[in-house]
Amino acid sequence: MTISKGVHTVLMLYLSVSTLAPPFKLVDVPGKGRGLLATNAIARGERILAEAPLLRYSETISPSQLASAISKLSSPDQAAFAALHNAHPHLPQAIGIIRTNGLEVNDTEGGVFTFGSRFNHSCAPNVSHHWDERRQVQVFQANRAITPNEELTIYYVRLLDSSETRKTKLRTRFDFECACEVCAGVDVAASDQRRQLVQSTTDQLPSLGSSPLRLVIKVREALKALDHERLAFGRGQLIFDVWQVSVMYGDKASADKWAKLLMELRRVTDGIDSEDYAEAKALVGSAARHPMFAAMGRKVVGGPE
After folding, report:
1. pLDDT of residue 19
2. Which residues pair with 253 in a beta bridge?
3. What is the phi-psi region of residue 248: left when phi exceeds 0, alpha when psi lies from -120 to 50, beta otherwise?
4. Are 66 and 131 in contact (CB under 8 A)?
5. Cβ-count burial of 37 within 10 angstroms (0-12 exposed, 13-18 middle, 19+ buried)?
6. Mean pLDDT, residues 215-232 taken together
7. Backbone Cα Rg of the chain
């Protein structure tokens, strides 16, 4: 068993570097415990935080192995770890903390973070995050404009599930009842229908390639549903699949429109220094060079509009 523990480093990386102060503060949030509030306006696509983990752990780590890893942390980092919430009091304390606060690093490892583990859940989160393998940090980006004193939130469970399913998972895994703006909203049933439309469209993508016009109509509807739900989540696969179909039908103009939309999505959710942004940018203008270009003949597929 390998337990990874690096020097804990918090990097505050912003598109605007006019201030070194982080754009958030750690406070008590009514009904949620501790959480992060924006201290100033944060622009859509702005980097909020890039943070190395306090420690990384295997999904199969034992209590003794975890205790050994914690003992190697500095005193401040040990205190930061111990201050995190434990939603699993029936488990050993440290195991409960990583189960409650861990964020995925890769397929087999998680990480616990001083600030990154303080983001509370929302079913319409305003923050996207991903692991940057090259820099070994978890990156957090504003996926929409955020106002001063607005809570900064990520998601803990699958967002396209129904509200009742999400609430059950959150209750079981994290021991709280979700009362976010979606689950406590006036029309939860309509929200569930929109999310189900997105899931249904995503599931149908493999079978829609032979009907490009129908595919585009369905993807446009799904993207509008995501707009209504204020979700950045779930867009990438929809957009990329239509780009692929545009390439296969030799529609360079439409392919470039979808590639630019994907590039903008990655700018917002991942940042311009991310691999996903670089890959999306490389798609722009590349359709005619793709080995599957016009493999299905020539047809106008249509863009996102």
Report:
1. 45
2. none
3. alpha
4. no
5. middle
6. 98
7. 21
Structure tokens at 280: 């999306």
Please give the Cα distance from 39 to 127 (Å, whole number).
Answer: 15
CA dist 301 and 158 (Å) reads: 31
Q: Name 69's Cβ contacts closer than 8 Å, sequence gap at least 6.
A: 3, 5, 55, 57, 61
pTM of the predicted model as reported, rounded to 2 decimal places: 0.92
- Given a cut of 80, whether residue 11 has pLDDT beyond it is no
Mean pLDDT of 294-304: 96
Structure tokens at 45: 């696509």
Return the percent helix, strand and coil in the chain, to nearest 5. 40, 15, 45
Residue 21: what pLDDT? 80
CA distances from 66 to 69, 71, 91 (A): 5, 9, 13
The three-state (H, E, C) secondary structure of 28-40, written as one string: EECCCEEEEEECC
Residue-wise pLDDT tens digits, 123-154: 999 999 999 999 999 999 999 999 999 999 99
pLDDT exceeds 50 at position 6:
no
Sheet with 55-58: strands ordered across? 55-58, 109-112, 103-104
Residue 9 scores a pLDDT above 80: no
Backbone angles phi, psi at 277, to 5 degrees: -65, -45
Give the whole-angstrom CA distance, residue 181 versus residue 179: 7
